[in-house]
Amino acid sequence: MFYSKAVIQYDGSNYAGFQWQKNAHTIQAAINHALALVQNGICTTMSASRTDSGVHALEQVIRITSSQPIEHPQLLEKLQNVLPAQIRILSLHPSQRSFNPALDSQSKQYSYLFTNRQIASSEDRKYIANISNPLNLQWIRACTKMIQGKHDFCNFVSTGSSVKTTIRDVSLCELHTINPHHFFADSPLFQIDLSLQECYQLKIEANGFLKQMIRHLVAALWRVGSGKLSVDEFAALLQAPKHPQQLWRVATPSGLYLQRINY
After folding, report:
1. What is the dihedral of CA 124, 205, 202, 110, to 10 degrees?
2. Which domains are seen in the chain, by residue range?
3. Segment 158-208, tens digit of pLDDT
4. Hey, what's the torsion of the CAs at 136, 128, 167, 9, to 10 degrees?
């Protein structure tokens, strides 16, 4: 067998997440189909992160396993020609058989982009989420500091997950104001209106994430900023047992980006 490491980028707007699913339009299914068209033999893929429906990636890492030798420069060019326009291969190199994109990673970094305007066009909201309620950023930043460290995120996970533990170690959680055009400077897949010169970026890095954990955190932070959840109540959710009811809807996936995998 022959093994390769690929770094890919994708616009997940019209996909049901990365992982292959029966009768679903997924990123992995599109890549597997493209490989079948241009690479001899049988090919399989595995990823560093199973991004959810509608979530994007600036740098996702996958391993390609092929039963036939891989000519990397040629395969890279061929894949670019047959993949959908929403998926790009940034690099493709040989890898060891032992390389596991998910298990070998030390941490993963995501960014959630959003604006805080009363009205945002559907075009603007395609790649940047919007919360229309006025937000108190001081309250939100107080909570982002609390998120850093090792916590039980049982109140910030969607049902349907089969993980052994809901404890995660967050090494970074910060809220910044950025120019989104700078954020997308090396990512031509994501085209936003030139007039949109400012948005918020919640940057978060951890040793791993739970199902929809970041979107839960964003939704909770928005409730804090809107005055619907106090800073103390947010702190209690990080420390207390599982709350009997979910207190919010998860934030839209349109603003969420897998930004980097650290090895």
Report:
1. 0
2. 2-94 (3.30.70.580), 107-262 (3.30.70.660)
3. 987 778 899 999 999 999 999 999 999 989 999 999 889 999 999 999 999
4. -160
